[in-house]
Amino acid sequence: MHLSVIGCGYVGLVTGACLAEAGHDVVCTDIDAQRIAQLQAGNVPIYERHLDKVLASARQSQKLSYTADAGEAIRGSEAIFICVGTPPKQNGDADLSAIDNVARQIAAEARSPKLVIEKSTVPARTGLELRRALTAYSRNNEVRFRVVSNPEFLREGTAVEDFLHPDRIVVGVEDDSSAADLRAIYRPILERNFHCPVHNGTCPPERPAELLVTTISSAELIKHASNSFLALKISYANVLADLCEKLGADVEQVTHAIGLDPRIGTQFLRAGLGFGGFCFPKDLQAFVHLAASVGVDFDILKAAERVNKERVGRFREKVRRALWVIKGKRVAVLGLAFKANTDDIRFSQALEVVKALLEEGAHVHATDPEALSKAKMLLPAVTYYEDPYDALREADAALVCTEWQAYRSLDWQRAGTLMARRLVIDGRNLYSPARMRELGFEYYSFGRE
Ligand SMILES: NC(=O)c1ccc[n+]([C@@H]2O[C@H](COP(=O)([O-])OP(=O)(O)OC[C@H]3O[C@@H](n4cnc5c(N)ncnc54)[C@H](O)[C@@H]3O)[C@@H](O)[C@H]2O)c1
Predict the structure, then answer these.
(1) What is the mean pLDDT of residues 256-266?
(2) In the structure, what pLDDT confidence band is assigned to residue 142 with cuts at 50, 70 and 90?
(3) pLDDT tens digits for 422-432?
């Protein structure tokens, strides 16, 4: 099937590359002509594991192409994936203006029937509005639009793997033919009939993904409900950590034990600096806003959001207690990305920490394996290093803000000889407190003594 993808960000690029790898002809377009030129030149504008391999392979098989001309992409495809951003507005509601712009373009350019697939995360009922808008904007009464909601559950850092090996594919439809088309698009993935770049062809046996067919509004709600529940779990673990600190308990022993109950599960129970990124904070806000707009008070989600916002303040308190005076101190920040294995710094808690330190007059020396160039543009007052040991040189304290594997396996013996003071404040609970003390460090983390 001829497919097009509108929006070449994290989701659009992974969607386009993986569907081309699965055998479809895909053309990707973006409003950012520079990004399209970069992609046409064979450069990958974001860091995402395995994406370079999939893009190169799709390029070689000539299944994937890029164009800055959205009209060309729209006219040449039967199915269009909308993957544009849906950032939060001031009031927490989702800003759907990019979706609206795309609807206008599709309506103006379409000369034949189009299956319009909403992959961006949007509040429930957006798909219904989108269908209405497509018809209203179209000047050609002959062209028929079908709208499908196909929320994306990939996680940055493991996005290619998640797309090719999903645990479920949700399609919200209004008619059987749309469900059949989506099944055809995803068939190679459902039947594992593609060359897997992650496992180099031989994927481990696992339960095949299920394709769940729902209504459009249910599909949209599933995505918000899923992210909000995960955010809730993280905030729960963080409040537990605060409680453990007061009571002298160890949050990791507690979360490990409760997580072994299969009804709870061990994932997303890690205490620390909390969640950031382009999805959880905004999806949580949008879900609360959506609920309020129909008279439902989603109080528990508001609490989860409040707890998360307070994490940086709590961390700052730990830093202040340890350093006494922050002004004039040299502080090494390990990690700027909102989580490991991505260069994405959008709504990163690490950046909030850096801003708080700068506000207090600290000299911030930061490092990150992938996010430096993005951070440099946003926070020019920071001194940046590729090598974490360089960032740690002469530091009065090391602050761990992102859970990169490279920081888990850092040689603290060596780091200790470089630092001005052996002090580590760990926002991601990466190390054993006992081991750090053995190495002569003052060590503080969340919910552990
Ligand atoms: N990033 C994730 O992990 C993730 C996971 C699941 C779902 N989502 C959702 O997917 C959507 C996209 O997220 P993202 O992280 O890929 O965003 P992004 O900001 O990385 O990418 C969006 C892209 O859309 C382009 N764009 C905006 N308006 C356009 C227009 N009118 N025409 C063409 N291109 C346009 C932008 O230039 C940008 O390149 C969001 O709704 C997000 O919530 C994101």
Answers:
(1) 97
(2) confident
(3) 999 999 999 99
Tell me the C-alpha distance between 371 and 339, whole Å. 10
C-alpha distances (whole Å) from 301 to each of 25, 93, 125, 229, 306 are: 41, 14, 20, 8, 9
102 CA: nearest ligand 1 atom: 31
User: Is pLDDT of 107 > 90?
Assistant: yes
pLDDT band at 364 (very low <50, low <70, confident <90, very high): very high
Task: Name every protein residue with a CB atom under 6 angstroms from any ligand 1 atom.
Answer: 6-12, 30-32, 35, 70, 83-86, 98, 101-102, 120-121, 152, 154, 156, 278-279
SS3 labels along the chain? CEEEEECCCHHHHHHHHHHHHCCCEEEEECCCHHHHHHHHCCCCCCCCCCHHHHHHHHHHCCCEEEECCHHHHHHCCCEEEECCCCCECCCCCECCHHHHHHHHHHHHHCCCCEEEEECCCCCCCHHHHHHHHHHHHCCCCCCCEEEEECCCCCCCCCHHHHHHCCCEEEEECCCHHHHHHHHHHHHHHHCCCCCCCCCCCCCCCCCCCEEEEECHHHHHHHHHHHHHHHHHHHHHHHHHHHHHHHHCCCHHHHHHHHHCCCCCCCCCCCCCCCCCCCCHHHHHHHHHHHHHHCCCCCHHHHHHHHHHHHHHHHHHHHHHHHHCCCCCCEEEEECCCCCCCCCCCCCCHHHHHHHHHHHCCCEEEEECCCCHHHHHHHCCCCEEECCHHHHHCCCCEEEECCCCHHHHCCCHHHHHHHCCCCEEEECCCCCCHHHHHHCCCEEECCCCC
Q: Residue 325 pLDDT more than 80? A: yes
Q: What is the mean pLDDT of the chain?
A: 96
82 CA to centre of own chain = 17
pLDDT at 353 over 90: yes
Q: What is the rounded average pLDDT of the residues 336-360?
A: 98
Residue 406 has a pLDDT of 98
> For residue 6, with 0-12 CB atoms within 10 Å meaning exposed, 13-18 middle and 19 or more buried, which class applies?
buried
- What per-residue confidence (pLDDT) applies to 331? 98
Q: Would you place residue 202 in the very low, low, confident or very high pLDDT band (cuts 50, 70, 90)? A: confident
Among this protein's residues, is 279 annotated catalytic?
Answer: yes
Which of 4, 29, 30, 118 to probe ligand 1 with, by most ligand atoms within 8 A of CB? 30
